[in-house]
Amino acid sequence: MIALQKLGEALVNLPAAQLAEIPLDPLLLEAVDAARSYKSHEAKRRQLQYIGRLMREIDPEPIQFALEKIQSKGKQAKAQFHQVERWRDKLIEDGDKALQPFLEKFPNTDHTRLRQLVRNAQQEKTGADTQLFRYLKQIIDAV
Predict the structure, then answer these.
(1) What gap in Å lies between CA 56 and CA 26, rounded to an integer?
(2) Angle in degrees, 0-180, between the axes of helices 128-142 and 61-94, rounded to the nearest 10
(3) Angle in degrees, CA 73, 79, 85, rounded to 5
């Protein structure tokens, strides 16, 4: 019973775009939307209990599966963001020494463009590190 209420709380805390990806009964969706609009702690608590009651009448497994899928996407995106940051920092710091391992790992990279972006970032030209980051993200996302 408490687990269903916690699942309902997770639904309430999701952004609207992610909530739309989850298969919800219309009555449950209405209850979740209502809980999102409440400012009072007590009103929200009562609404969460109501959501928990509604969830006892449906199969929560598809909802749990969809929620886990959304959460794993977020973790993957965060890990990929950190990977791009590490490559960018390594390329700026080590220059040509780090270029070869990157090109081996991502062979479809435009070698000349990457080298130019790295050099610009090393010379601290305005926005060069951002351009390098975007280019690296584009390459790594393509894999």
Answers:
(1) 15
(2) 130
(3) 135
Domain 2-58 has CATH 3.40.50.2300: no
- Mean pLDDT, all residues of the chain: 90
Radius of gyration of the chain (CA): 23
The DSSP call for residue 123 is: T
* Token pair recorded at residue 6: 């916690």
Rounded to a whole number of angstroms, the distance between the first and last alpha carbons of the chain is 43
Say if residues 110 and 118 touch (Cβ distance below 8 Å). Answer: no
CATH architecture of 73-142: Orthogonal Bundle (1.10)
Write down the residue that tokens 């209405």 correspond to: 30
Cβ atoms of 106 and 143 closer than 8 Å: yes
Any residues with CB less than 8 A from the CB of 64 and at least 6 apart, and which?
Answer: 7
pLDDT in tens, 91-101: 999 988 999 99
Does 2-58 match 73-142 in CATH topology? yes
- Give the whole-angstrom CA distance, residue 58 versus residue 8: 12
